[in-house]
Write a structure and sequence with these properties.
2 helices; 2 strands; mainly alpha; 86 residues; two-stranded antiparallel ribbon
Length: 86
């Protein structure tokens, strides 16, 4: 394992520990109202769901950005090959 993967694993472990502490301290029951209905859930579940939705949304934006950049690279490489063939 290289240094980069060790740092990433350490940060991930620290994030999980922090999430566990926050989840353990937020055991209150709250009412969550959404479009169709309402339910009573613990605050830690609400925090986890909000965090996961944020991560998924960020990944979706990041993936679309990366795909757009890769497409732009492909188009520029084609243009470079076309110009160098002249």
């Amino acid at each position: 394992m290289n240094i980069k993967s060790i740092v990433i694993l350490t940060l991930l472990l620290a994030l999980l520990i922090i999430a566990g502490v926050i989840g353990a301290n937020n055991t209150q029951i709250v009412s969550v109202n959404y479009l169709i209905a309402a339910s009573q859930v613990s605050m830690s579940k609400v925090i986890i769901c909000a965090f996961l939705m944020g991560v998924l949304f960020s990944l979706l934006l990041f993936i679309t950005y990366i795909i757009r950049l890769k497409l732009q690279i492909t188009l520029l490489e084609r243009r470079t090959k076309k110009l160098s063939a002249r």
